[in-house]
Amino acid sequence: MSNLPKIAWIGLGIMGSPMSENLVKAGYAVTGYTLEQDKLDRLTAAGGTAAGSIAEAVADADVVITMVPASPQVEAIAYGPDGILENARSGALLIDMSSITPQTSVDLARAAKDKGIRVLDAPVSGGEAGAIEAVLSIMVGGEQADFDEAEPLFDALGRTIVLCGPHGSGQTVKAANQLIVAVNIQACAEAVVFLEKSGVDLAAALDVLNGGLAGSTVLTRKKDNFLNRDFKPGFRIDLHHKDMGIVTDAARTVGAALPVGAVVAQLVASLRAQGDGGLDHSALLRAVERLSGARV
């Protein structure tokens, strides 16, 4: 019998499926729940167990991990008679790895404490590739003792794992991450259009740019998307639109000016309004092409 904690995993999407599978590979017993049967079948094929409800998934779990799209979904699975807080055992550790508002995380931790459930907010960065390769950056908010308990589990999912402060701090750092990523993708997209319209060999140009100060993880990860116009979602525009709303609202609350971020947030919103919300966020290239008169 394994001495590793029993895991309940709620939310098996683009990120949640490979992350839960990495825990199975690391020897954890993982019971999953999501709304899509094919995702449950994928988990069982990888060696996990499918549950028929949240209550069933969390009943015997030592650790409950959630990975869902946004604050409303976190609240829907956490609260109410069929939710996590009413059905997880006292003493369990709830790790929310979704990207949500910092205040939602603070409120969840407060509500969970009344049930004897400990909480960490632990959003991630690295996209689908980082999830598959178990090289995610994990930014965590909560108590040191809970972080220390969860760290071996995080080690199976990511490479850079940092406790950033009290509840909500992980979400605040993730919001800053999404700001940087969006601005970086936008700059790369503008450079791509500029280079192509100038008649430069785009592949060669991106290689040399990525080897200098202009290089970045974003350019490394998204270079082929730009070159091949392949916008299969690794991280959807819809979700980045949500995240840009989080960071702009949070910045307004603390009195931080985000002049460039605000512009990019509008460009993301515009792309979504044009029907591209289901594409990868590298599809910001399409918005720059439209503005530049290129055929998309």
UniProtKB/TrEMBL annotation:
<feature type="active site">
    <location>
        <position position="174"/>
    </location>
</feature>
<keyword id="KW-0560">Oxidoreductase</keyword>
<dbReference type="GO" id="GO:0008679">
    <property type="term" value="F:2-hydroxy-3-oxopropionate reductase activity"/>
</dbReference>
<protein>
    <submittedName>
        <fullName>Dehydrogenase</fullName>
    </submittedName>
</protein>
<dbReference type="Pfam" id="PF14833">
    <property type="entry name" value="NAD_binding_11"/>
</dbReference>
<dbReference type="GO" id="GO:0046487">
    <property type="term" value="P:glyoxylate metabolic process"/>
</dbReference>
<dbReference type="InterPro" id="IPR015815">
    <property type="entry name" value="HIBADH-related"/>
</dbReference>
<dbReference type="InterPro" id="IPR029154">
    <property type="entry name" value="HIBADH-like_NADP-bd"/>
</dbReference>
<feature type="domain" description="3-hydroxyisobutyrate dehydrogenase-like NAD-binding">
    <location>
        <begin position="168"/>
        <end position="287"/>
    </location>
</feature>
<keyword id="KW-0520">NAD</keyword>
<dbReference type="GO" id="GO:0051287">
    <property type="term" value="F:NAD binding"/>
</dbReference>
<dbReference type="InterPro" id="IPR013328">
    <property type="entry name" value="6PGD_dom2"/>
</dbReference>
<dbReference type="GO" id="GO:0050661">
    <property type="term" value="F:NADP binding"/>
</dbReference>
<feature type="domain" description="6-phosphogluconate dehydrogenase NADP-binding">
    <location>
        <begin position="6"/>
        <end position="165"/>
    </location>
</feature>
<comment type="similarity">
    <text>Belongs to the HIBADH-related family.</text>
</comment>
<dbReference type="InterPro" id="IPR006115">
    <property type="entry name" value="6PGDH_NADP-bd"/>
</dbReference>
<dbReference type="Pfam" id="PF03446">
    <property type="entry name" value="NAD_binding_2"/>
</dbReference>
<dbReference type="InterPro" id="IPR006398">
    <property type="entry name" value="Tartro_sem_red"/>
</dbReference>
<dbReference type="InterPro" id="IPR008927">
    <property type="entry name" value="6-PGluconate_DH-like_C_sf"/>
</dbReference>
<dbReference type="InterPro" id="IPR036291">
    <property type="entry name" value="NAD(P)-bd_dom_sf"/>
</dbReference>
